[in-house]
């Protein structure tokens, strides 16, 4: 088997980076070591210190990119052995980076059927179109048969989750430091230097320029606190109307104590899996991140014993397909 060179790694990295990441921060970086193995590391400059204090979401994001790399290699007929390096918390390899995984070529592989859906997967933050009964039945059957997905469907379940999500979102948005960090990753004008590359831009947020300017002005200033004191905070963050258009919500959970890199790999497969049925997804991460919200949610939708909630996706058909905004390959590879 021929060694992977720098040009090939850049192409593979671009394919791997189609994976989802928290706030579209795209923290995974790729390098070759002296033995021709692929190293995946987290760029710590992209860590969300306020929203992700433990680094779990960064680990999940790197895990998703790792799964993308495994699929990209398999498409070239290359099988790899994966060493999960996240728990070792190695930061001495290179300043500003934390090693996440090492991939060692180990024979031949067949392409993954999920790889066909990487370009079709995207986050939809608008109102969903109506799902056909057949597509919804296929989705529910798939979810019920999986051991890490809990299906929540029907108007009552959606209303319960929608209200819980809005309440949890308001609680975190009341923290000025969280809002400041979020705004740093929002690209509210096409003139922003990173508009087409990372973060959350107007297209991804389904906002017009005027709406984006107003949102940025409110979130990045004390105006939010003033509006909240006047009772308008809930209105500013409310998503319930859009959530109620979803076909269902899917609770994604994994074994307690599992490395976030492993969970991130499974999360990417999960999202690609639902994409096969014609569904887009929109995460409600606060339902997993806010303890009170998570506890309330799991009282109604219990998980298998020994599992922890990773994320909740509201899913449904999207009326259009959105482009992905990703960093160029040259920014993903470390020399």
UniProtKB/TrEMBL annotation:
Source species, domain of life: Bacteria
Protein known as: Uncharacterized protein
């Amino acid at each position: 088997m021929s060694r992977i060179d720098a040009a090939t790694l850049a192409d593979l990295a671009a394919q791997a980076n189609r994976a989802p990441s928290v706030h579209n921060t795209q923290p995974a970086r790729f390098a070759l070591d002296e033995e021709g193995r692929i190293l995946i590391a987290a760029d710590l400059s992209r860590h969300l210190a306020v929203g992700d204090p433990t680094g779990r979401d960064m680990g999940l994001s790197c895990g998703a990119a790792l799964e993308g790399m495994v699929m990209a290699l398999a498409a070239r007929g290359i099988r790899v052995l994966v060493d999960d390096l996240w728990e070792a918390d190695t930061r001495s390899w290179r300043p500003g980076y934390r090693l996440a995984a090492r991939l060692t070529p180990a024979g031949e592989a067949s392409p993954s059927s999920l790889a066909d859906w990487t370009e079709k997967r995207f986050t939809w933050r608008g109102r969903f179109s109506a799902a056909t009964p057949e597509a919804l039945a296929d989705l529910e059957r798939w979810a019920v048969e999986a051991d890490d997905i809990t299906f929540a469907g029907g108007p009552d379940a959606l209303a319960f989750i929608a209200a819980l999500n809005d309440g949890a979102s308001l609680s975190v948005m009341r923290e000025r430091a969280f809002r400041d960090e979020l705004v740093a990753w929002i690209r509210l004008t096409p003139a922003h230097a990173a508009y087409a590359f990372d973060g959350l831009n107007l297209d991804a947020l389904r906002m017009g320029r005027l709406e984006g300017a107003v949102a940025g002005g409110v979130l990045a200033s004390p105006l939010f606190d003033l509006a909240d004191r006047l009772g308008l905070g809930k209105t500013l963050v409310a998503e319930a109307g859009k959530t109620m258009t979803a076909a269902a919500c899917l609770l994604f959970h994994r074994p307690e104590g599992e490395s976030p890199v492993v969970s991130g790999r499974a999360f990417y497969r999960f999202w690609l899996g639902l994409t096969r049925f014609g569904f887009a997804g929109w995460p409600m991460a606060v339902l997993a991140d806010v303890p009170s919200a998570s506890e309330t949610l799991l009282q109604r939708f219990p998980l298998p014993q020994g599992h922890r909630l990773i994320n909740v996706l509201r899913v449904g058909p999207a009326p259009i397909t959105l482009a992905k905004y990703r960093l160029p390959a040259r920014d993903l590879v470390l020399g």
